Amino acid sequence: MNLALFDLDHTLLPLDSDHEWGEFMARIGAVDADSFRKANDEWFAHYQNGTLDPVAYLEFALGNLSRFPRTQLDEMHLQFMDEVVKPAILPQAVALVKKHLDAGDLVAIVTATNHFVTKPIASHFGVEHLIAALPVLDDAGNLTGKLDGTPTFGPGKIVHTEAWLQRLGFKLDQFERSYFYSDSQNDIPLLERVTDPIATNPNDKLLAHAQARGWPVLNLFADGHAQ
């Protein structure tokens, strides 16, 4: 059995689910559109530039979620999936995940986006295992606005992936082949730890790093074939 890890946003999805969730919340009137969009765009720019404070961002995102009871959040997320996420999912992304699942690989999505936003998306791809930023829940299952533990961002992806594997009785280094697909330079720490790093729809910074290291580049949304 091999290990196959996938980033989510701009890797399997041709969008950023966290940013799109914010846009969706503004569009349906759940938050003040102007002020929220301004803040949402500023956080997204920090992420793209590699200057994001992941704890501060997650407390911003989770804080907005905590304003709503869980039942209402779940209803909004069903609408978000139908209107935003499902129409954006491309067959070649589904096929790539399915290839690893059919091969019997241990498959996980490893994302810096929070668990609430990403769990239904992972389920739609048929992926059972999700490593994502965990919100603190109260006794009724409502989000408190706080982050549980450390962010699944940058080197944090290694920490959380190794902890997840340990719970399953595995170690990262024991797999004959371990794949990680990602689009971002923020994921270089975990890309450097696997046997098969694959720069997938890479941004300019990751593309330059991948070319210097001789990693394969997969333009999944362009043609579905490695270069």
What does this structure look like?
One of its GO terms (molecular function) is metal ion binding. Keywords: Hydrolase, Magnesium, Metal-binding. Pfam families: HAD (PF12710). It comes from Herbaspirillum aquaticum. There is one protein chain. By secondary structure, the chain is α/β, with parallel strands linked by helices. It has a single domain, classed as HAD superfamily/HAD-like (Rossmann fold, 3-Layer(aba) Sandwich). Helices cover 47% and strands 18% of the residues. Strands 4-3-2-1-5-6-7 form a seven-stranded mixed sheet, with helices on both faces.
List keywords for this structure.
metal-binding; globular; Rossmann fold; HAD-like_SerB; hydrolase; seven-stranded mixed β-sheet; 227 residues; single chain; magnesium; alpha/beta; HAD-like_sf; 9 helices
The CATH architecture comes to: 3-Layer(aba) Sandwich
Q: How many domains make up the 3D coordinates?
A: 1
Largest sheet: 7 strands, mixed
The CATH homology group name: HAD superfamily/HAD-like
The chain-level structural class is alpha/beta
Terminus-to-terminus distance: 26 Å
Percent in strands: 15-25%
State the shape.
globular
* Assembly state: single chain
Count of helical regions: 9
**Order of H and E elements:** EHHHHHEHEEHEHEHE
